[in-house]
Amino acid sequence: MSALDTASIEFIRANPLFQLLTATDQSRLLSAFKLLELKPDEPLYRLGEHSENICFVQSGVLEVADAAHACRLEEGALGTELLLGAQTLAFNVKALSSAKVFSFPVAALQEISHANPAVKSWLYDNYQALAQRVRQMGASAQAPTTAAVPTATAAAQAAPVTNKMLFGWLITLVLPLLTLYLGSSQGGLAKPALYFLAILSATVSMWIFDLVPAFVPPLFSLLGPSSFCV
Predict the structure, then answer these.
(1) Residue 56, φ and ψ in degrees, nearest 5
(2) Which helix (H) or strand (E) is 94 found in, with range?
(3) Whole-prediction pTM
(4) I want to staple 103 with a disulfide (CB 3.0 to 4.6 A). Which of 53, 98, 111, 229 is the partner?
(5) What are the phi and psi torsion angles at 41 (to 5°)?
(6) Could you give phi then psi for residue 115, rounded to 5 degrees?
(7) What is the pLDDT of residues 157-186, one digit of tens each?
(8) What is the mean pLDDT of residues 12-35?
């Protein structure tokens, strides 16, 4: 933890949140800021734990993650949910590179945030923007993996043709022809009745061997004798 130099003080004074404070509050709170230097992979916050400080990123790259998503962050405020009534942190935060952040006690800004609606609004907007960014960036990072997973429909379309299916289609094609041949050679059946028996035999075959979706055989059977009247 390092003392603040002139460049650090200028960075803090330029912070959008700090600019919402009165000159008196700025002077009073400036001494409460501390500079933290993080090493790569060093954690800053842990999801579900409590912290006494909020942080402002000065330099470096940090990873902000909830239980399912993560994004990279190079600027902005962290831990602002603690000033919005949250008792625990909403994100895991760790450094991905060497980083510098300014730490500031929550208690020092608590009273001011309650009395200053502009400060409260900024804290809320900052938290909502960060949460949305984590979700969006996390979803974008997962999109290629999700797209590569084959769907159940694709798997079904790629299913091999079985011997039962081949035999079923053979029966479905041959049985109506056999019905027509035997009916014609034996005589005694009118053509509409003969055609109906041929259609019925094909319908039954498709149903028994489960060759098509269940709704197809009933539709096929609606082709009645009248359809083939001559």
Answers:
(1) -125, 125
(2) strand 92-95
(3) 0.57
(4) 53
(5) 75, 0
(6) -90, -15
(7) 444 567 778 888 888 888 888 888 887 777
(8) 88
Classified as helix, coil or strand, 30 is helix
pLDDT score at 6? 84
What type of residue is 194?
L
- Report strand pairing: 34-38 vs 70-73: unpaired
Neighbours of 44 (CB within 10 A): 24
What is the Cα–Cα distance from 62 to 44, expressed in whole angstroms? 9
CB 71 within 8 A of CB 142: no
Integer-rounded Cα Rg, in Å, for the chain is 37
Burial 112-130 (b: 16+ CB within 10 A, else e): bbeebeebbebbeebbeeb
C-alpha span between 83 and 107 (Å, rounded): 9
Residue with tokens 């006494």: 52
Q: Residue written as tokens 């034996």?
A: 186
d(CA 109, CA 103): 12
Q: Which residues pair with 105 in a beta bridge?
A: 53
DSSP code for 226: G
Beta strands in 15-61 (DSSP E): 34-38, 43-45, 53-59
49 touches 36 (CB < 8 A) = no
Q: What is the DSSP string of 81-93?
A: GGGTT-SS-SSEE
Q: Give the pLDDT confidence of 117-128 residue by residue, as tens digits.
A: 898 899 899 999
**What's the full length of the chain, in residues?**
230
Over residues 79-121, the pLDDT tens digits come to 999 988 889 999 999 999 999 999 989 988 888 888 888 988 9
What is the residue whose two structure tokens read 């259609």? 199
